[in-house]
Amino acid sequence: MLEAFENHIQTEFPNLKEHAFLLACSGGVDSMVLLDLCFRLKLNFSVAHCNFKLRGTESDEDASFVEEHCNELNVKNYTTDFNTVDYVDANKASIQMAAREMRYAWFKELLAKHKYNCVVTAHQANDQLETFLINLSRGTGIDGLAGIPSKTATISRPLLPFSRAQILAYAHTKKLRWREDSSNTEVKYLRNKIRHKIVPLLKELHPSFLDNFQNTQSYLSETSTISKNHIDAVRNRLFITENDTTLISTKELLALKPLKGYLYALFKPYHFNAWKDILNLLAGMSGKEVVSKTHRLLKDRDHLLLQKLAPEVSKTFKIQRSDTELKEPIGIKIRAVDTVAETGKHILYVDQKTLKYPLVVRKWKKGDYFYPFGMQGKKKLSKFFKDEKMSVIAKENQWLLVSDDTIVWVIGKRADDRFRITETTKDTIKFTIEK
Asked: Per residue in 386-416, is it b (16+ CB within 10 Å) or e — as a string?
């Protein structure tokens, strides 16, 4: 196995021979074999062990075991403790998901602090099969069936071609020591149930099932790559990004066949999973939206608008007096002036006596209206926005300058006629949007 592993590193993971890396080691047989293989090949690595404090003294003994073994080999070792139960309670996550999130966050910190090239984990062929069956049972696309990637930008998994049987045989041949995690025998966890109950039945049905599965998954992975290249090309053609918003033509989306398959592939990277809602959005009214944990997708006339979710901003900002500056949500300089000079959409002159302080800068709300400068009568802001052909997102991002709950200025768009300069104006206030 050592020779096969060395050849695999040579052809698929040259980065592990050229750069220092971090090896994740639980103390179990898979990670202890990986540690031994990397040590025998004289690769430059350090070890990282996570103690999740879930099995009492057994967890502490695992940490001590890994530390002692690293000391024997003179390999640098990092160990950290996690209060997993508190994390689960605070984040409403499963134990498995909590452990995964915490360990990879810690690995990321170590990579950044010590300049390691990547994290190397001991995932092997049986893990790949179990993940495939888990994803299949939950429902997935081709990416889920293609399985665990052998490498990403920060993670390498060089043991994936090797089975649990090969790893155990190597461990026994080399007389390696390892720790058995007692929780691995508990079938209350889905992965363990698949490992101990379903996989043995599959192997009983076909002794070479694992080999056949690896071949099948290799084909799936290649098909997934072809599919990804095509979807990327479609996305590059249809997704037009302007500032922080991406516009997607609903007409061009509807022309894609099969539509559901394209919607899944195009929007999955943005963490959408309400596919029926997205399908309905295409024929829905402007203003309708679907939200994922990271993005929002809005219908606006002939387009869908894709936008990353931003932290909620305070809805009101006060201006206490003239001769001051507003820093947020937009920069506005307020000054008393003697004459009206330069004009433009970024400048507003008003009659001082028409203002009541504090002035407020806020977003628009349903029912807002104003008397547009240069026009007769009042107009609802919703109608003004429609006439201006403003998108849903542009309307949401529009700020208003308000005096005593009366709109003074649709900032950067149009002033209210009631605050204009007249022949009787004695004191003039100038508002300037700072660019």
From this structure: eeeebbbbebebbbbbbbeeebbbbbebbbb
